Structure formats: C-alpha cells, structure tokens
Amino acid sequence: FEMENEQLRARLQAARQEGESWRHELKQRDHELELLRVELNHIKSAREEEFQRAVQKGVRSQMREGLKLRMQQRLKMKEDFQQEIDEIRAQYEEQLARKDRELEQQRLATEEEVHDASDAVIDSMNLSIAQLERFGSF
Length: 138
Known about the structure:
By secondary structure, this protein is mainly α. It has helices at 2-57, 60-134. It has two helices and no strands. The longest helix has 75 residues, at 60-134.
C-alpha cells in the first residue's frame, strides 16, 4: 500500500509539474499578446502620423478609410489571437482540474484501503490475543 501510495504521490507530482508547464506556457502567451498590443500601439501611432501627413496633402478621406480598414484588420487579428489564448487557457485549466480531481480521488481511495487493511490487521491481532488469553498462555 505504501508503494502504491508513493506511486500516486509521484503521479500527482508529475501532474502538478505538467500543470506548471501549462501555466508557464500561458504566461508566455500572455507576454506575446502584450508584445502584440505594444506593436499595435506603435502601428497606431505611425498610422496616425501618416494620416496627418495625408490630410495635409489633401487625401484625407482616402487615408482615413485605409487606416480604418487596417486598424480593423489588426484589431480582428488581436481579438482572434486573444480568443485562441483564452480557449487554450480554458482547456489547460480544465485538464489540470480534472487531473487534480482524479489524483485526489485515487489518494482518498488508497488511504481508505490502507485504513481498512490496518483495521483488519489490528482485529486479527486482537483476536489472536483473545485466543491466547483464553488458553491461559498470556
């Protein structure tokens, strides 16, 4: 039982390490998203400057529509990327929670088996002691 309990502990530790790996990947994806946000802000600033120059040249409406379209495309890309990250995060968190529940159930079952086995040993010893006392050997 101790060996089985140790195996369960090792599996629990491995699952926790896998979860940490997932958490690290999520942090990395969050960092990548933040870099995209910074890049988007730089692009936004550059486009705004470009827009101001175009206004001065007299092509205001054309540039505005082009800029609006590009910004909408960038925003859509950002939203798609964020949705993908959120879906991956939800999957990882669900898998991690499921593994934690499974391992906890296994740990509780093992504890119950160990407890039952130790109770059986104690009952057997008590029965043996009672039999010895009955025969006067104790």
